[in-house]
Structure formats: structure tokens, C-alpha cells
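Form 7-S
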Amino acid sequence: MDLLTQGLAGAVLAQSAARQVPARLAIAIGFFAGLLADVDVLISAADDPLFNIEYHRHFTHSLFFVPLGALVAALLAWPFVRRRLSFATVYLLAVLGFLPSGLLDVCTSFGTHWLWPLYGERLAWNLIAIIDPLFALILFGAVVLALYRDSVWPARIGVGLAVLYLLLGLVQRERAADLAAELAAERGHAVARLEVKPTLGNLVLWRAIYESDEHFYVDALRVGFLAPTRVYPGASIARFTPEHLPGLDQDSQLANDIARFTRFSDGFVALHPQQPNVLGDVRYALLPNSVAPLWGMELDVTQPDRHVAFLT
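Output:
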């Protein structure tokens, strides 16, 4: 999720277990540890733009990296609190602060390598958008009340409300998926695979993408709580295959980068409808029922041995 929400989640979880620790210290350590996992955004290679997107939300967000990441956070925080807290306490708070970072990203539509190295694929449960103001507000309110009362109970209530919000996202995801499957059946499409993702900042409007007969079909679905469901029909686009670039040397750097981007996009790749030299990730678009991708890679067949440019 966004940095602020990850920090707030770390602060709330750390404070929820800090009965014998002043709230301001537990919250500060948890907040700092919650931010630290996203240090992987600094991992990059100047001549390989895909390197950054491959390693952002990667091993630093793994469940198995938590002890090491928390150790780094504790070592950095220790000089500031060593007169008030033991190192063991600081480390425990850092573990609780670091823990939600990967877990929350698994709950988003973007996902993360939460079980790396045991499982190498990116996991995305599609329960919540990458930025959700209401979810962040729940955590912020818990932090403010915990500081004001110097108590663990507002934080514990905040953790409970956050879990309930994610469970609501699960219910909404299943409702949206059922609606998308019904829509495909009405069109007479045999669905090869289907995904639904919450749109930015809410659990009501969802983006549905399904594949049928080597085409992707995209629709926006309003899955309200009181009002009836509503479909905003989108468009379709052909799935990218190597046949779109006849004559491309499959041992070239361009072919290798296409394979890397296809893995990153979980196979949801297609040529941009207005820019046929751009291979886009169909899972994300500026509008929830659009097939024009939010980001992609430029295909320069005249320079097959150079790394591609990444475009947003």
C-alpha cells in the first residue's frame, strides 16, 4: 500500500502489544519499521528499467524477511530510545511494525512476493486498492486515540476494524467476480481466467478483466451495499503473442524483456490500442473500463539487443 498507510499499520500493531511501553515510543518505532520495507524502491539499474519494477515489493516484503528487516529497524531506532527501552523491546516492536508491510501489499491489487523464496510468484488477493483513504483513516484514528489515552485499547480496536475492512473487501471481491462471470456467460464467452480489482480508494467500483478466445474483456462493475449492482461495459483487446512481432529473434534482449514484463503482468499483456509500439499491462488503466494500459514497455524492433524503455 502507500507509505503512509503502511507506517500507520505498523504503528497500530506495535502499539496494540505495548502495554508497558509509552504509546509515543511504540507508535514511533512501529511507524518507522512499517516504512522500512519500501526501501526496495531504491533498487534500480540505470540501463535496465524493468529491474526496478521486478524488485519493488519483492524480498523486503517477504514474510521470511521480517526478522531481518525488523533487526535493521531496531538497530537504527535503538540510539534514540536506549535510555527508555531495552533492545529486546525495541526489536519486538520493530517486528510488529515491519510485519504488516508485506501482508497489506498481498491484500492489494498489485501484490507482492510475500512467500519468497519458498514461492517465487507475486501474490495479490485483490481485497483493497493500493490507496484507500477510509482504511488509512481507521488506522490514523487508532493512532491518535492511542497517543491521547496512552493506551493499547484504541490500537487493538483499530486492528480489529482494519481486519473487518479487509474481510469486507473479500466479500466485495467475490460479489464482483460473480457479476463478471455472469456478464461473460451472457455474452457467450468461455472464460479462460478472470480477475477483479478494486479501483482507487474504494470497495464499491471494481475493474473486471477476463480472457476469452485470446482476447481480454474489460468492464467496470459497481457493487454497492444498498443500491443495485451496475455494469459499465468496456472494450476488448487481443492478447499479445509472439506472432505480433514476426521475425523477432527469441534470443534477443527485446524478446527477453517481453518475457520478463509478461511474467510481471501475469500474462495480462496487450499492445496499446493507440500506440501499437507499446506493450501494456491490461490489469491497470486510468479508467476502470478502459483497455488503454496505465503503464507498459516500448517495443523498438530496430534495436532488439537493447533494454526496453518503461513508460507510464
